[in-house]
Write a structure and sequence with these properties.
Helix content is about 85%, strand content about 0%. The chain is mainly alpha-helical.
């Protein structure tokens, strides 16, 4: 059985991976923002957000992840996408 320290080290490694993925996601969000500007497309896409939320809820259920955790994380992306895509 692993020790608490070993489990915390595993969490630290996962957190490092998450940060790298978030960095990559933000870079793509910036590219989308640039494309939207050049094509005069509204920054906020409520239809996309709605479909994304539905997909996330479905995936969370399939993965047995509490929906409130997933929605808290993605709401941060949605809220900050306006600033990132500007």
């Amino acid at each position: 059985m692993p020790t608490i320290e070993e489990l915390r080290n595993q969490i630290d490694q996962i957190d490092e991976k998450l940060l790298k993925v978030i960095k990559e996601r933000i870079a793509i969000m910036r590219q989308i923002g640039e494309m939207k500007k050049s094509q005069n497309i509204e920054i906020r896409d409520f239809d996309r957000e709605d479909s994304k939320v539905a997909m996330l809820k479905k995936q969370a259920k399939e993965l047995n992840i509490p929906e409130n955790i997933i929605m808290a994380v993605w709401n941060v992306f949605f809220e900050n996408s306006l600033e990132i895509e500007k």
